[in-house]
Design brief:
Blueprint: E1 3-6, E2 21-24, E3 27-30, H1 48-66
Antiparallel strand pairs: 1-2, 2-3
């Protein structure tokens, strides 16, 4: 079974403890994304609304690496 890790170069800590996505046998498995600022690595303040607004662009960027 071949596995291909997918990680954003700007994301801190990925590839060491976890991968943001893995392609295995043609299936993409995405990990949970942390609501962190991509430049500082700090958690975005606020609640679920602010975290969701932050999370969606992260997931889109990870999936764009695959295309």
């Amino acid at each position: 079974m071949s596995k291909v890790p997918i990680n954003l170069a700007t994301s801190k800590g990925t590839g060491i403890l976890h991968n943001q996505a893995i392609i295995a046998n043609g299936v993409v498995y995405c990990s949970g994304q942390v609501p962190a600022d991509m430049t500082t690595g700090e958690i975005v303040p606020g609640g679920i609304k602010e975290h969701t607004v932050c999370f969606n662009p992260h997931l889109i960027k990870v999936l764009q690496l695959i295309l």
